[in-house]
Write a structure and sequence with these properties.
The protein has three helices and eight strands, in the order βαβαββαββββ. By secondary structure, it is an alpha/beta fold. It has a five-stranded parallel β-sheet with strand order 3-2-4-5-6. The chain has a three-stranded antiparallel β-sheet with strand order 1-8-7. β2 (33-38), α2 (42-57) and β3 (62-66) form a beta-alpha-beta unit. α1 (9-26) crosses α2 (42-57). The protein is globular, with a radius of gyration of 16 Å. It starts with a strand and ends with a strand.
């Protein structure tokens, strides 16, 4: 297995700052905006976005965690069911602008499932999708992110791994992992 660094700590911090600036440009204020981080890995990125937005604007944007396990189209097709994560949304999203956040956008299927799961908490006025990495040429459903940190050309056999410092690694990094046989 080979690992190639896509973004290291300094570039990742700059990318997060740029994404926050794009959000600020498109939201007059964040009074009617909430953030939903997708379980399991999108929540770490969502926490970073919320913290950086607060640093820049002073806005306190509500943050929730959304699990879409039971809404996935492959949930019942597995030999052993996928383990669900916690959904933690302590607010209504009815009439709110929702920023849905995930770390890696691959086929779009998890985002489709997340949008179905999100409706249980109300009908939002608008939904935007913010992703750290968009894997190009792999889309299965017609969903496109509104905000993208970095686009990466990948094969189906590749994997994009996002590591956050708070998860026991030394630095924030994004890796492209390939099998040695390729």
């Amino acid at each position: 297995m080979q690992r190639r660094l896509l973004l290291g700590h300094p570039q990742l911090a700059i990318t997060i700052g740029r994404l926050c600036q794009e959000l600020i440009e498109n939201h007059e204020n964040f009074d009617n905006t909430v953030i939903l981080g997708l379980q399991p890995r999108g929540i770490f990125f969502a926490e970073r976005i919320k913290a950086r937005l607060h640093e820049i604007t002073g806005a306190e944007v509500e943050l929730g965690y959304l699990d879409s396990t039971f809404y996935r189209d492959d949930f019942r097709r597995r030999d052993s069911p996928k383990r669900a994560n916690e959904t933690k949304i302590d607010f209504l999203i009815e009439g709110k602008k929702v920023i849905l956040i995930d770390d890696v956008f691959y086929t779009g299927r998890s985002i489709r499932a997340a949008m179905d799961a999100m409706i249980a908490y109300g009908r939002p006025a608008k939904v935007e999708l913010l992703v750290l990495v968009e894997r190009k040429y792999s889309r299965h459903v017609p969903i496109k992110p509104d905000y993208v940190g970095q686009q990466v050309n990948t094969l189906d056999s590749h994997k994009v791994l996002v590591e956050w410092k708070g998860q026991g690694v030394d630095d924030d990094n994004i890796w492209l992992i390939t099998n040695e046989e390729e």
